[in-house]
Design a protein that fits this description.
The chain is built from five helices and eight strands. With about 210 residues, the chain is of the alpha/beta class. A six-stranded parallel beta sheet has the order 5-2-1-6-7-8. Strand 3 (about 75) and strand 4 (about 80) form a beta hairpin. The chain is globular and about 55 Å long. The protein starts with 7 loop residues before the first strand and ends with a helix. It binds pyrazine-2-carboxylic acid (VGL) and zinc ion. Zinc ion binds next to loops. Zinc ion binds near residues 60, 87 and 113.
């Protein structure tokens, strides 16, 4: 029997061209989740997307640190920071949502990563937890109690969004066939799943909602 989706939000994390095959920070098989997310969208009355949206001088870009390459570590906002290729630059094609992802019924888009001094994986807070995007209050004001997380990437923005969602008191689900990992190390995606489970995120498959 299909789940009851009263007071539930579908959260679509960073399904943007740069995280899809051919993008600058491509997640392998990332495009395979798009039809799954589109099917899920039909079951929800409340849908919100997040968008990684960096200025060109963002501190997470390796090119902005002389002599550094993507994958190397630095310190940013007093936190260990992995350096990335340039991605999701404001106004670029790479920052746009994939054209096959249906945005028609989205209630809101929350952008993050706009402050060059700190990275922002979660859709709720920056990595230093100094700034709040407003997503938590927005969901609460709408009476949302259950958050269903999908999108990219399972081992970064999806993981941190799901962990923050739990910490804010939402009953939080990860739809495991509606996300894919970057896997800089080959088991990062699996480790992220374990971490989320431990924190109280409930793992389900899309069939629990679609069938
Ligand atoms: C992401 C790395 C850098 C993500 C964003 O959306 O998972 N990963 N910026
Ligand atoms: Zn980013």
């Amino acid at each position: 029997m299909a789940m009851n989706l009263k007071n539930s939000a579908l959260l679509i994390v960073d399904v943007q061209n740069d995280f899809l095959p051919e993008g600058s920070l491509a997640v392998r098989h990332g495009d395979e989740i798009i039809p799954v997310i589109n099917a899920l969208q039909e079951k929800f009355n409340f849908i919100v997307a997040t968008q990684d949206f960096h200025p060109t001088d963002h501190g997470s870009f390796a090119v902005n640190h002389e002599g550094k390459c993507p994958g190397e570590m630095i310190v940013l906002a007093d936190l260990p920071q992995i350096l990335w290729p340039v991605h999701c630059v404001q106004g670029s094609e790479g920052a746009e949502f994939h054209e096959e992802l249906n945005p028609i019924r989205w209630t809101a888009i929350f952008q993050k990563g706009k402050n060059p001094e700190v990275d922002s994986y979660s859709g709720f807070f920056d990595n230093a937890r100094r700034e709040d995007t407003g997503l938590g209050d927005f969901l609460q004001n709408e009476g949302i109690m259950n958050v269903f997380v999908t999108g990219l990437a399972q081992d970064y923005c999806v993981k941190f969004t799901a962990l923050d969602s739990v910490s804010l008191g939402f009953k939080t689900y990860l739809i495991s066939d509606a996300t894919k990992a970057v896997n800089l190390a080959k088991d990062d995606g699996d480790k992220a799943l374990e971490e989320m489970k431990k924190a109280g995120v409930i793992l389900i498959e899309s069939s629990a909602i679609l069938d």
